[in-house]
Amino acid sequence: MKVQFSLNVSGTELCYDTATNATTTDCPFHKPWFGVLQMKLAMSLCLIYLLVRQKVTGKPYLESPVFKRKHFGTKYMPQPRSYEERRTLLQEAYDGPSWRTMLFLVFPALLDIVNTVLAFTGLLWVPASVYQMSNGAVLLFSAFIAMRFMGRELYCYQILSIILVTVAVIIFSVAGILGGDHDTVSPYEIYANLTTAYELPTIPVTSSDVHQAMGMLFILLAQVVLAAQFAVEEHFMIERHVSPLLLVGMEGAWGLVLVVGLVPLLSTTPAATDSIVAHLWHEDFTDTWVKLKGSSPLVMLGVGYMLCIGTYNVRTLVVYPRDGIENYECDFR
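Structure tokens predicted for EamA domain-containing protein (333 residues):
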């Protein structure tokens, strides 16, 4: 996705070229909402896989009920206590989840859209390596939600892990900001100043610093939303027994409906070329279409990205059905 965002493609929108000190239509493909649309299409491939598998195997249901699944021979989900509850769940396995459950899946889909657009907007200004490593912040926010709202307790080794991740996220955030235009200031010099002079060295603030700081802020906010999304998804998998593969597929389908509905609104909102946060509420999809028609490498990157994510989702959620959601979310955002 970072490569796609970095491509300069001719379109209809104008941008400022620092090399020529003039405006041009040959601009970077900064389209986070189009990235969200790609993500939703890739997630929807899980539904296609389920339908094709059902047709090939001849099974009367899309996916086995979660409470019947085993991990190394042991069922890892809470088992229904009453026969009536078990009979209802088995019936849903054949008939599919109830319409009520399918409707409520719009809530994790909405959370997924919010965290994806925040993460992709941050990725516009932050190096891909820093972006990927900063995704570990979801561990901190997930632990807070688990303790505060789900009544869970943490062991000592889990607390130690959270502390280490917090320190690492702080280091990555500083590295993401200093990794831009500051060739004369190193993290060691900052440490030396703090330990000897008890003050930070003088660092000139540039527009690149502001962009990267805002990018890191967006990424961290995305991790907060992602942690909330994990909690909601856990409810659907445990309480409503929706399989991970079906859950991801329905999030993709609902996401497509929501994003397509937002396209006219995003295109008519006021644009602000000098504003970093404008990418959250405005995106010219006419310009996106023109750029796609005029750049075959961009099309190939987009299609390849969706196929990679779709294939990875199916592979992960079939091989590792219990923790596939977390693998998918953290590895390929």
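Residues 2-331 form one domain.
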